[in-house]
Structure formats: C-alpha cells, structure tokens
Design a protein that fits this description.
- The complex is a heterodimer.
- Chain A is mainly β.
- In chain A, 0% of the residues lie in helices and 50% in strands.
- In chain A, strands 2, 4, 5, 6, 9, 10 and 11 form a 7-stranded mixed β-sheet that branches. In chain A, strands 1-3-8-7 form a 4-stranded antiparallel β-sheet, with no helix packed on it.
- Chain A is globular.
- The mean pLDDT of chain A is 96.
- In chain B, the strands form 2 sheets. In chain B, strands 2, 4, 5, 6, 9, 10 and 11 form a 7-stranded mixed β-sheet that branches. In chain B, strands 1-3-8-7 form a 4-stranded antiparallel β-sheet, with no helix packed on it.
- Chain B is globular, with a radius of gyration of 13 Å.
- The chains are: A mainly beta, B mainly beta.
Chain lengths: 121, 108
C-alpha cells in the first residue's frame, strides 16, 4: 500500500524557516517524481514544487521561487521542502504528492495527509 | 501561467441527479487535465486524468470529457458519498501546474 506521511509543520514567525519531510513507503520511491502542493485555510489547491526521480529536474511556483528548496533522499525514501523567509501567505496545509510523470510534472495519484504550517507573529 | 476557471463554484443537487462541472483553460492544454475530489479535512483523491481516463478504483458514474480549453466532469447519478469539492488541474505547462478554484457539491 502506497503511504506518504508528512511531518515538520508548526508555528513559525514571519521571516523564519521550517523544513518539511515526507516519508514514502509501499512503492519504489526512486522511480517517481514527487511534489509539494499546499492549501491555505478555506482556499483551493496550489502547486508548490516538483522534483524528478533522480533530482535532475526541479520546478517551483513563482510564489515560492528563491525562498523554498525541494530535495529528496532516495536511500531514505524521503522528500523534503526547506522553507525560508516565510510569509503570512505561506500559511497552509502542505501535501506531499506522488507524480505520474517522469521528468515533467503531471498529475498526482497519491497524496499524504498533509502537515499544517502557520506563519504568524 | 495558464489560468483554470471552474464553474459553478457551488452546486446544490440531490441524490440521483446528473451533475456537470465545467473547467476552462486560458489557453489550449490539449487533453492534459486531471480531476480530483476532496472531502473536508482530507487529501484530494484523483478521479480522472488525461481529460477522460478513469483512475483505477473510481466508480464508473464519474466521467470526464473535453480537449483544448473546455472540459467537463460528469457524475451520472449523484451518490451520498459524492458530496465534496472537486478541482481540475492542468499539466500542459511545466512552467507552472495550476488548479481550478474548486466546485463544492452540496446537498439540495
């Protein structure tokens, strides 16, 4: 059974940093591109970032480019999102999602349960 | 970025109704469109990919159609478990994946 479990969310002050993790199991993690997608409270879904299976291709939404860094460790079956210079508008539930695409981001067939990030003073 | 516009934003329907949700893209995305269902407090669930391909395990009452800039998700006979919010998502452009604003299907 495919499982994606996010962790690392919490309360952080504006300008602060946070690192999210996603532990994957039930599939060959190193064969799939992975993504982060977020959802602000009461709002819709927003794609944040994508990383290909071997980390060769990385993409970011304009809203986080230069502040967030996606990475992965295939030996540990883990996906990460380093978030710096956090703003109030980054407050959201952050989902880890498996991508059907190989190089170019596509659609997401499995999602984690999400981890809440709250940016507030 | 490609903008995705869903309509309606809210839809009131009864069990057994045929329901149609529309998603329009700001430019052609061929058939690179997915549909998701999300229930409160839960992660989204993939229903349809490549505009009309049904994800494994998804009931056949769900169907998708369209290409280019206009797409539809149809639920042929609404069931109690189908009351949720539905999102479309384009994946034509790797410069930015985008979702529609969502359509909430409520009990009439």
């Amino acid at each position: 059974e495919v499982q994606l479990v996010e962790s690392g969310g919490g309360l952080v002050k504006p300008g602060g940093s946070l690192r999210l993790s996603c532990a994957a199991s039930g599939f060959t993690f190193s064969s799939y591109s992975m993504n982060w997608v977020r959802q602000a409270p009461g709002k819709g879904l927003e794609w944040v970032s994508s990383i290909s299976s071997s980390s060769s291709y990385i993409y970011y939404a304009d809203s986080v480019k230069g502040r967030f860094t996606i990475s992965r460790d295939n030996a540990k079956n883990s996906l990460y999102l380093q978030m710096n210079s956090l703003r109030a508008e980054d407050t959201a539930v952050y989902y880890c999602a498996r991508d059907w695409g190989v190089v170019v981001p596509s659609y997401f067939d499995y999602w984690g349960q999400g981890t809440l990030v709250t940016v507030s003073s | 970025d490609i903008q995705m516009t869903q309509s309606p934003s809210t839809l009131s329907a009864s069990v057994g109704d045929r329901v149609t949700i529309t998603c329009r893209a700001s430019q052609s995305i061929s058939s690179w469109l997915a549909w998701y269902q999300q229930k409160p407090g839960k992660a989204p669930k993939l229903l349809i990919y490549k505009a009309s391909s049904l994800e494994s395990g998804v009931p056949s009452r769900f169907s998708g159609s369209g290409s280019g800039t206009e797409f539809t998700l149809t639920i042929s006979s609404l069931q109690p478990d189908d009351f949720a919010t539905y999102y479309c998502q384009q994946y034509n452009s790797y410069s930015g994946l985008t979702f529609g604003g969502g359509t909430k299907v409520e009990i009439k």
